[in-house]
Amino acid sequence: METLTSLCASQTLVSHTARPMPISASGSSVSANGYAYSLNSRAFLPRKQRMSIIKASVAVEQQTEKPKVALVRIGTRGSPLALAQAHETREKLMAAHSELAEEGAIEIVIIKTTGDKILSQPLADIGGKGLFTKEIDEALINGDIDIAVHSMKDVPTYLPEQTILPCNMEREDVRDAFISLNASSLADLAAGSIIGTASLRRKSQILHRYPSLKVVENFRGNVQTRLRKLNEGVVHATLLALAGLRRLNMTENVTATLSIDDMLPAVAQGAIGIACRTNDDKMAEYLASLNHEETRLAVTCERAFLETLDGSCRTPIAGYASRDENGDCLFKGLVASPDGTRVLETSRKGRYALDDMILMGKDAGKELLSRAGPGFFNS
């Protein structure tokens, strides 16, 4: 027999029983595998038993350590796309701040929103603004999370009190993707073909150009669910944001990418926004390191346009601000009747600067409101 001089000190066998016993530790002794061992004296045990006791002791110590409190708790919806965006946020925070790169420093908290709970009705019928953000905002205000990650096109033009949204990460491709098993484009679909979408913006633009097609409005669910319905033959085609497919590494499903001229995107499409509490300077500092200013300015311009129109889920509205080859801002805006029979478009060009871009968005919105006239959105 060998003398045990282990990492946890010399030990002496003091009792034994034939029944297995749970591992435990108390004071200067350890119990494991039916043996009780003193940590203050010597023992003569076979090597295999010595190693078992050492491992048991280490395991006990690890189990009794206090769990590490996360420095940043990220609130997000639980869909695959929302989680992909939350993980992208976490990775960028870890890369920018060494203290956040440690294990357990960032926690992702999944929150179910109203928009996730009610899938049987069209978005336009259940409500309006904040369907995918309300519960996350409440968790932020209540201190259950530290930052909230949103798809910016889901964020109402107003923010709840006690919150700010100081960060837009660099925008993904803003275009829409056409997906079909038997057609190469919208123009290639036979008359009477059914397209599934949850977006009035897409519906109105499709029907405006292709009135012979049919659009199923309540085509809801996450990306995977919509693609499954397409594969099952529920619809002949669907349109999804290319940004989401890219973030999910699912671009192999794309049949064709629609140009901006063919399908003007939703306001803030492809942009991720991150909110924190108004008085949380530490989180604001973290988020400042992730902000992409060109994206933030473009989104601000588009949201000024949307706010002026007072757009809701019942209003087909599209808007896109981009930087042109000369470095200026080019804004394109659109409103449509829900049935697609009327589409009104406008554009603006000006300096790529915050105040100028806000004015462009507001001015474009006022113009389209004037041109549309009363009752336009009820047709």
TrEMBL record:
Subcellular location field: Plastid, Chloroplast
Keywords, alphabetical: Chlorophyll biosynthesis, Chloroplast, Plastid, Porphyrin biosynthesis, Transferase
GO cellular component: chloroplast
SUPFAM superfamilies, A to Z: Periplasmic binding protein-like II, Porphobilinogen deaminase (hydroxymethylbilane synthase), C-terminal domain
Pathway where it operates: Porphyrin-containing compound metabolism; protoporphyrin-IX biosynthesis; coproporphyrinogen-III from 5-aminolevulinate: step 2/4; Porphyrin-containing compound metabolism; chlorophyll biosynthesis
GO MF annotations, alphabetized: hydroxymethylbilane synthase activity
Superkingdom as given in the UniProt entry: Eukaryota
Domain Porphobilinogen deaminase N-terminal: 72-284
CDD domains: PBP2_PBGD_1
Cofactor: dipyrromethane
Domain Porphobilinogen deaminase C-terminal: 297-369
Entry EC no(s): 2.5.1.61
UniProt keyword Cytoplasm, yes or no: no
Gene Ontology BP, a term: heme biosynthetic process
Entry similarity comment: Belongs to the HMBS family.
Role of this protein: Tetrapolymerization of the monopyrrole PBG into the hydroxymethylbilane pre-uroporphyrinogen in several discrete steps.
PANTHER family hit by this protein: PORPHOBILINOGEN DEAMINASE
Protein name per the record: Porphobilinogen deaminase, chloroplastic
Organism: Linum tenue
